[in-house]
Amino acid sequence: MPQHPIKTLLREHAEIMAEAGGLRQMVQRLTVEGEAAVADALPLFAAFAEMMATKLELHRQKEDQVFFPAIEAVIGQFGPTSVMRIEHQQIHAQGVLLRQTLYELNEIQHPAIEAGAAKLRALAATGGSAATLRQAGEEITDLLNSHFGKEEHILFPMAHNLLDGVTLEEIASRFEEMDIAGV
Ligand SMILES: [Fe+2]
Ligand SMILES: [Fe+2]
Q1: How many whole angstroms from 136 Cα to the centroid of ligand 1?
Q2: Residue spans per domain, the chain
Q3: pLDDT tens digits, residue range 73-102?
Q4: How much is the pTM?
Q5: If you measure from the C-alpha of residue 50 to the centroid of ligand 2, how many angstroms do you get, rounded to a whole number?
Q6: What would the mean pLDDT of 18-33 be, rounded to a whole number?
Q7: Could you say which ligand is closest to the alpha carbon of residue 12?
Q8: Which CATH homologous superfamily contains domain 5-181?
């Protein structure tokens, strides 16, 4: 089958975080060098905003349109008729945590990341002080770090247990189609 979808998402996280590393270094330079670093920072911010509008956007679409709904579909099957009470409680607790996590990732952090990209793009286009650029760069790298961390430590391991082979294959082929179609 095509690459395991969780592996695909992890690989994309790694690629995006590698670029975020460059942004972090620029934040350091802005801290140390101040306004002298602004001329170098602007094109880097523009490139990062472009990456967010393309690679990161496609990644978000894979999660929002395919991966998260597949998990939600499985959680939706946890009915009140489960065999054992303890097992049921465990499943329920897992379901609640998953729902909360999905809500946070999907409804709060994904839009926040999009807003962050728009801010970076605007700053890169209109210019900004070293302090403004530094703050925006820090915000977006912190947000990506925490967002990917939550997906990698909470969501992906649960999804690994919840999704069966057929579903994983379906997700994997949808991901491939989306890669071909692009953003
Ligand atoms: Fe995400
Ligand atoms: Fe992700």
Answers
A1: 19
A2: 5-181
A3: 887 765 444 444 445 455 556 667 767 777
A4: 0.85
A5: 17
A6: 96
A7: 2
A8: nmb1532 protein domain like (1.20.120.520)
pLDDT tens sequence across 51-77: 988 999 899 999 989 998 898 888 776
pLDDT for the residue numbered 17: 95
Run of H or E residues at 51: helix 38-51
Instruction: Name residues whose C-beta falls within 8 Å of residue 172's C-beta, 6 or more positions apart in sequence.
Output: 1, 2, 3, 4, 5, 8
Task: Please name which ligand lies nearest the alpha carbon of 65.
Answer: 1
Angle at Cα 64 formed by Cα 163 and Cα 145, nearest 5°? 95
Q: Is residue 3 within 8 Å of 172, Cβ to Cβ?
A: yes
Ligand located closest to 60 CA = 1
Cα of 39 to ligand 2 centre, how many Å?
A: 31
CA of 13 to the centre of ligand 1 (A): 9
Ligand located closest to 13 CA: 2
Stronger pLDDT, 158 or 20, i.e. the higher one: 20
